[in-house]
Specification:
The complex is a heterodimer of chains A (about 325) and B (about 450).
Chain A (H helix, E strand, L loop, with lengths): L21 H23 L1 H24 L10 H11 L7 H16 L12 H12 L7 E2 L12 E2 L2 H10 L7 H4 L2 H6 L11 H13 L6 H20 L7 H6 L3 H8 L10 H21 L6 H18 L15
Antiparallel strand pairs in A: 1-2
Helix pairs in contact in A: 1-2, 1-3, 1-9, 2-3, 2-4, 3-4, 3-5, 4-5, 5-14, 9-12, 10-12, 10-13, 13-14
Chain B lengths: L1 E4 L15 H4 L3 E3 L5 E5 L9 E2 L6 E2 L4 E4 L8 E2 L4 E10 L5 E9 L20 H10 L12 H5 L9 E6 L8 H8 L1 H15 L3 E7 L3 H11 L5 E7 L8 H9 L14 E5 H11 L7 E7 L7 E6 L4 H7 L7 E6 L6 E2 L13 E6 L16 H5 L6 H9 L3 H6 L10 H5 L6 H26 L3
Parallel strand pairs in B: 1-12, 2-15, 10-11, 10-13, 11-12, 14-18
Antiparallel strand pairs in B: 3-9, 4-6, 5-8, 6-7, 8-9, 14-15, 16-17, 16-18
The chains are: A mainly alpha (about 325), B alpha/beta (about 450).
C-alpha cells in the first residue's frame, strides 16, 4: 500500500463494511455462553468442564479432519465448531460418560454439519442433532440427572428427576408429585440450582448471555420473544383449564431447556428464517410444538425436538414470508 | 414555506460511519487552473457524446466540444481555453473506456462569447429554458448523471406535481452538497424556482438529512418568503436515504412502481448541485464546466471541498489536498458505498464526481467470502425488500429464473446488503451480474416470442 497505483485495490462497490464477521459473531456467542458455563461449574462441578472440553475439542478436531478429507479449507477459524461443541455439552446431563459425548460431537459435526456442506448449508442445528442421537441411543444415560451442589431437598440422593420429568412421571402413575413446589422454588430455577442438562439450568446466566447477543446484534428479539410468548400463553391456558394436572406457566418457562433453546439454539442463524416475520413464525412454532410434546408427548421436555422440527420448515417459512418488494403490489402467495 | 420532519422513512437501510467531520466544516476553495484536462465524452447515462473537435483545435472556455449522440445524451464543453492535444479512447473515472478530449490549457482561461440573454427566465417560454438546460450540458450531479433535459420533458399525459430537491447526501465522507447548500443556498433556490416553472410543479420539497442542521438553516433562509406549496423536509439520517425512490417515498409516501419512473407517481428529483448548475446556465449563461468535489479520506493529507473544472485530473486535486500518504490503498470516484475504484489518478473528474476519496487499508480491509449463514441482515438492510442472500445463491447456481422471480431487477445496487454481510459475500456483484443476465434472457425470450408469432 503506497502512493504507487499498482498497489491500489480495485474492487467493486461497496467499499465500506460494518466490520462484523462470522468469526466475530461466533466469538460473541462463545462469550455469551460463558455465564451459563460458570453457573454450571458452580452447580455440577468439574463434570461440566469435563463434558464441555470433550465436546469442544472433539468438534474442532472432527471439523478439521473432515474438511481435510473433503479437500476443503480448514473451517475451524470461523469458530462455529466451538459453538457447536459448547451447545452440545450444554444439552447433556452432567454425569454422561465421556465417550458418549465424543459420539454425540462426531455426529453433530460430521453428519449434521459437514455432510450437508459445512457452515451455512446444514438444515438442522448440529448440536441438537447430536443431542437427539444420544437421547435415542443411550436413553438411560441421557436421562440420569445429577443432584446439583447446594441443592436442599428432603432426600440425599446422588441423582434425581428434573422438574418437568418429576411432574410427568408422577402423573403418569396417577398421583401428584409430592412436595414439588417446595423442592423446586422459583428462586432455585432462576439461579439454576436444580437438576437438568448442564447448561440449561441457570436462567439468570442464560438471560445475561441473551442480552449480550441482542446488544451485539447476533440475534434479534423475534424468535425468543415469540417462543417465550407462545409457551407462556399455552401454559397459562392449560393451567387455567386444569390447574391440578398442569404446571403454572412460570414453571414451563423456567424449569426445562426453554431459555437455552430460545436464546441460543432457536436463534441459530443458519437453520432459522431470514425474514423478521419468518423468525416470529419460527419462534411461535417452536413454542407450540414444545408445549404439545410437554403436554401429550412421551418425553417430559420438547425443546430440542421442537427446534429440529421447525428447522425442517425453515425453507418453507422463508418462501412464504418474503418481504413486499418496493414498488410492487403484494402478490398472491408464491406458487 | 414551512419546515417539517418527514413522517415516513423508507424500509431497510444502514448506519455506516459517516466520516463527514474532516471536510464538513471547510469552505469551498477554487482549484488553481490545471495545465491539462481530460474531458470524458461519457459522463452521463445514455449515448456517449459525439466529439466536435480534433487534435490541434483551439478551444475557448464554455465552447461545445461534443454534442449529444441521441435523445438521452448530453453536450460537453471545454473547461478552459487551450489546445486539443488528442481525442482518443481512454480509461475514465467511470472505470470504463470512453472517448476523452485532452486539452492543454493556455492559462488565459478565455471564455467563448455567450448569446445575449433573451429576457427574464420568469417570462421566457418554457421550451426555451429546457433548450438552454440541454445546451449547457446539464446532467444529474448526484451521481447517476441522467441528462436533465430528458427529465424536464415528460411525455404527454404525465405531469409532475412534486419537485423534490435532493440535499440528503447520504453517502459517507461526501460534503460537496452540504457545503453548496451552506454557501450558495440562494443560487440553489433560484435554480429550483426555474425548475418549478419549467415543470409547472405545484409542490416543491427540499429534502435534507437531520445530520446537517446548518444546511437546513441556510436553505430555510433562502426559501423564506416563497409563496405556494413549498416545504423543507428533514429526513432521518440513514443510507440510502438519498436514493431517488427512497427519497420520493420519504416525502410523498408514494412508491415508484417497479420498472417505472418517478414521473409515474408525479414526482421528479433533482440534486441540489444540479439546481445550482441550472441557475448558472439560465441566469449566468454558463454551461456546466465545473463542480464541487469533496476530496477526503484518511489517506489524504488535507481534506478539502474544491470547486474544480470538469476534466481536472484526479492528480491535480490530490496534489492540491496535500498529496497521498504512504498508507493509500484505494482511490474512489464517488462515495464508499457506490463509488468506483480507480487504478490511476490520470483520469479527469466527471460532472457526477461528487467525491474523490483516498482510503487506507484500515478503511478498506480485504476479505475472503464465506458461505451464507442466513443471518438475514441483508434482508433487513435492503431498501428494496429483496432477499440478497437468496439471490446471491441463485446467481452462484446460475438459476436466472429464480432470480427473476425474486425481483432481482428491483435492486438499486446501493450496497447496504454487502455492507452488512458477515460472510463478506459479493452480493452487489452477484446482483449486477444477475440483472444483466436476466435482462438478456428477457430480451431473448421476447425475440423468440416475436419469431413464433408471424405478423
Amino acid at each position: 500500500m503506497s502512493e504507487n497505483p499498482s498497489t491500489w485495490v480495485i474492487s467493486p462497490s461497496p467499499h465500506a463494511h460494518s466490520g462484523d464477521s462470522v468469526q466475530r459473531i461466533m466469538l460473541t456467542v462463545i462469550l455469551a455462553l460463558m455465564p451459563a458455563l460458570a453457573a454450571s461449574v458452580l452447580f455440577f462441578g468439574l463434570d461440566s468442564l469435563r463434558l464441555t472440553a470433550t465436546c469442544v475439542v472433539t468438534c474442532i478436531l472432527a471439523e478439521a479432519a473432515v474438511r481435510r478429507l473433503m479437500k476443503r479449507d480448514s473451517g475451524i477459524a470461523d469458530l462455529s465448531a466451538v459453538v457447536t461443541g459448547l451447545l452440545l455439552a450444554f444439552n447433556l446431563p452432567p454425569t454422561l460418560p465421556t465417550w458418549m459425548a465424543v459420539v454425540g460431537s462426531l455426529f453433530a459435526i460430521v453428519i449434521a454439519k459437514q455432510l450437508y456442506g459445512g457452515i451455512g448449508y446444514n438444515l438442522f442445528n448440529p448440536a441438537l442433532v447430536g443431542r437427539c442421537v444420544l437421547l435415542v441411543s443411550f436413553p438411560v444415560a441421557m436421562t440420569t440427572w445429577a443432584t446439583p451442589h447446594y441443592f436442599t431437598g428432603p432426600m440425599d440422593a446422588v441423582t434425581m428427576a428434573t422438574p418437568l420429568g418429576a411432574w410427568k412421571t408422577a402423573w403418569a402413575s396417577g398421583q401428584a408429585p409430592a412436595g414439588f413446589f417446595d423442592l423446586f422454588t422459583t428462586t432455585s430455577l432462576l439461579l439454576g440450582n436444580r437438576p437438568g442438562c448442564l447448561g440449561e439450568t441457570s436462567v439468570i446466566a442464560l438471560v445475561l448471555g441473551g442480552v449480550i447477543l441482542l446488544w451485539r446484534r447476533c440475534i434479534t428479539w423475534h424468535i425468543p420473544l415469540a417462543y417465550f410468548g407462545t409457551v407462556a400463553v399455552m401454559a397459562f391456558g392449560f393451567h387455567k383449564l386444569d390447574p391440578v394436572h398442569n404446571l403454572p406457566p412460570v414453571y414451563h418457562l423456567l424449569s426445562g431447556g426453554l431459555f437455552l433453546g430460545a436464546i441460543f439454539m432457536a436463534t441459530d442463524m443458519v437453520t432459522t428464517p431470514v425474514t423478521r416475520s419468518g423468525m416470529f413464525i419460527f419462534g411461535a412454532g417452536c413454542g407450540l410444538i414444545t408445549m404439545l410434546i410437554r403436554k401429550w408427548g412421551g418425553y417430559p421436555e420438547g425443546v430440542s425436538f421442537a427446534i429440529l422440527i421447525m428447522n425442517s420448515l425453515t425453507p418453507l417459512i422463508n418462501r412464504f414470508t418474503r418481504p413486499r418488494v418496493f414498488g410492487h403490489v403484494r402478490k398472491e402467495t408464491p406458487a | 414555506m414551512k419546515t417539517l420532519r418527514a413522517l415516513f422513512t423508507p424500509r431497510g437501510g444502514i448506519h455506516p460511519r459517516y466520516f463527514k467531520e474532516p471536510s464538513a466544516g471547510l469552505a469551498i476553495e477554487t482549484l488553481p487552473l490545471p495545465k491539462l484536462f481530460l474531458v470524458s465524452l461519457s459522463q452521463h447515462l445514455g449515448a456517449p457524446s459525439r466529439p466536435l473537435v480534433k487534435k490541434g483545435d483551439l478551444v475557448l472556455r464554455g465552447q461545445p466540444i461534443a454534442e449529444p449522440a441521441g435523445y438521452v445524451s448530453a453536450w460537453v464543453h471545454a473547461p478552459t481555453s487551450g489546445v486539443v492535444k488528442s481525442v482518443d479512447s481512454r480509461l475514465t473515472a467511470n472505470g470504463q473506456l470512453a472517448g476523452v478530449v485532452t486539452i492543454e490549457a493556455d492559462g488565459l482561461d478565455k471564455a467563448v462569447e455567450s448569446d445575449p440573454v433573451n429576457g427574464d427566465w420568469t417570462t421566457r417560454p418554457v421550451r426555451e429554458l429546457v433548450d438552454e438546460v440541454l445546451k449547457a450540458g446539464i446532467v444529474g450531479m448526484g451521481g447517476a448523471g441522467f441528462p436533465t433535459q430528458v427529465k424536464l420533458l415528460p411525455p404527454p399525459g404525465k405531469t409532475i406535481q412534486t419537485l423534490i430537491v435532493n440535499g440528503a447526501e447520504c453517502e459517507p465522507y461526501l460534503t460537496a452538497d452540504h457545503r453548496l447548500m451552506l454557501e450558495q443556498a440562494d443560487r440553489i433556490w433560484q435554480g429550483v424556482l426555474i425548475l418549478k416553472r419549467i415543470l409547472g410543479a405545484g409542490q416543491v420539497r427540499v429534502v435534507i438529512e437531520d445530520n446537517k442542521p446548518d444546511a437546513v438553516a441556510a436553505m430555510e433562509q433562502a426559501m423564506k418568503g416563497t409563496d405556494g406549496d413549498v416545504e423543507l423536509v428533514i429526513v432521518k439520517t440513514k443510507y440510502p436515504q438519498g436514493a431517488e425512490k427512497q427519497l420520493i417515498y420519504s416525502v410523498t409516501r408514494r412508491e415508484v412502481p417497479s420498472g417505472g419512473l418517478p414521473m409515474d407517481v408525479g414526482a421528479l428529483v433533482e440534486n441540489v448541485g444540479t439546481a445550482a448548475a441550472i441557475q448558472a446556465a439560465i441566469v449566468d449563461r454558463r454551461p456546466l464546466t465545473e463542480r464541487v468535489v469533496s476530496v477526503s479520506g484518511d489517506a489524504l493529507r488535507t481534506p478539502r471541498n474544491v470547486l474544480a473544472r470538469i476534466g481536472t485530473p484526479f492528480s491535480d486535486l490530490i496534489a492540491f489536498c496535500g498529496g497521498l500518504t504512504e498508507a493509500t490503498a484505494k482511490i474512489l470516484n464517488g462515495g464508499p458505498m457506490m463509488g468506483i475504484a480507480q487504478s490511476s489518478i490520470t483520469v479527469g473528474i466527471n460532472k457526477t464526481t461528487s467525491g474523490l476519496l483516498a482510503l487506507s487499508q484500515a478503511r478498506v480491509p480485504l476479505f475472503t467470502s464465506m458461505p451464507c449463514i442466513s443471518c438475514g441482515r441483508c434482508v433487513t438492510a435492503c431498501p428494496s425488500g429483496l432477499l440478497p442472500c437468496t439471490l446471491s445463491e441463485n446467481m452462484e447456481a446460475e438459476n436466472l429464473e429464480a432470480a427473476e422471480d425474486l425481483n432481482i431487477l428491483d435492486c438499486i445496487e446501493c450496497g447496504a446488503c454487502a455492507f452488512e454481510c458477515p460472510s463478506h459475500r459479493p452480493l452487489v456483484q452477484h446482483m449486477r451480474q444477475g440483472k444483466t443476465k436476466v435482462m438478456q434472457r428477457r430480451k431473448q425470450r421476447e425475440a423468440e416470442a416475436k419469431k413464433a408469432t408471424p405478423t
